[in-house]
Amino acid sequence: MTGDRYRLHLVGLFRFERPTGEFIVLKSRKARAILAFLALARDHTRPRTWIKDHLWSDRGPEQADASLRQCVHEVRKALGADRDVLLASGSNLALAPDRVWVDAGDGDYLAALLAENDELPELLADLDIRDAEYEHWIRDRRTWLETRFEECNPGNRAAPVSQMPKTLQPCLIRSNGVADGVKSKIYNSVLQTLICKSIDDSGAVKLIDADVMNQLQSWESVAAFRLQTYGSHQGETVSIGASFTRESDGAVFSDAFRNLGPAETTNLQSFDVIDLINEAVHRAFDEIANLETRLPDAEISSALCVRALKSLTDYSVTSIDKADRLIARAHEIDPRGAYLSWRGYLRTFMLGEMQNKNMSTSPEEMERFIVQALEIDNANSHVLAVAAFLRSIWAVSIGEALELAERSNKLNPSNPLGISYLGMVNSHIGNLEKGYLLGKRAYALTTNGMTRSSIGYVAMRTAACAGRFSEALRVGEELRRAMPGFVAPMRMMGLLYSELGQHERAAEIEAELQKPDPDYSIKGVRAYYRNAPQMRNTALANL
Fold first, then answer.
1. Phi/psi of residue 375, each to 5°?
2. What tens digit of pLDDT does each residue of 330-373 get?
3. What is the DSSP letter of 150?
4. What is the pTM of this model?
């Protein structure tokens, strides 16, 4: 029902109507553009920075701020008593989603419009604004509207599915970044490079530059999404952001930003920058995983891999075996070094957590997977990070592990796995404080990560190696609550509780672990840390 909502017409000529049908006149073209921006955004919300970058990209920050405030005032004044239809917060503008109907988002309306017209109307046909970023946006959205009309045409609806191959590769479109100065352009370049590399290193996506869109086949648009980065330099601060837009329907499924203070603007690897990159990457992984629901007839290797890693809610035989079979199928569809490295990674849990019980694997099989992964792709930060982990923990080749971890971190300093395992290797060679700080940083970056438990265990381990036993126990308890079946943290926790004099707690953990593994004992763990070559320089070796 649209009778009680404001009506915003963007297809053809711009028109804004009250629920009564009365036209709302906005004299400023940029005020109308702001409403269009919001109407076509996910949840009808956009950051103020993004809007200023698309309407006043050639103006200074103060002038852009003043012009935006003036446009917002004009719209809210025109709305009168219903001024809260346009919501204005400190950093965002939004349209109240339950109070505004937008023609471009109504498939039935578009289908009826298509049936009534021989010539398709153009999006915002009367709204031309001389700003390079707006012009780029409107060209992109007009192409999107043409796709929407094709989907609404009954004769065309089945065509994309019939042309779609059985196996499909998601497409990541790199748009030109929006920036208002040299420093912002540098941040845009860093964000674009590391977000794309992180997504591609984890599995299989097809990277396409927006300027060469003829690379995108028509049937590929159903599995395509677009990355847009932006930056704005205001005084001593820099605002940076990254958004993803689904190519098939124009929905913005991620829009994250950070404000960098003066101390951070000279550090391209500050925590906020890397945190923003990882937030964007995780949103992209969610989108890739959702493709399996939207496209049930297609097999998508990267979606299979993401589903496999997300399915590890515990480390039971069943969940590990299921994840391994999914990743094996992903590799059959699209042979990638990343998939082989993940299979090697899973075998660390098969061997470590299950003590090889009920599972057919061996250290040799784990090593074979990682050797093959390195042969296929030795410039993949994930492959290098997992290889460093295996060399350090299982092969006890610390020198090679350090080289692999450093290469991983150099190729992609935003990869939490690379940061984590570089920290672990540094702890093993005696750089205890550096190892602890790297482990802590990686764990902080993986709030929603698919490998949070493994990275959390490394954070616990590096804290314990540095003698920070209470902090190690805090991380261990977090992991135990989140994943009760994860045994590795508990093995160390029993020893640490004993060392801190909490003998009842230590005895409780020892008894719990002896149920599945009668040979477990705190005494045995203490002996392991004293005798393991990679632990000789750590605080754990002295317990």
1. -65, -35
2. 999 999 999 999 999 988 877 765 544 444 567 888 889 999 99
3. H
4. 0.71
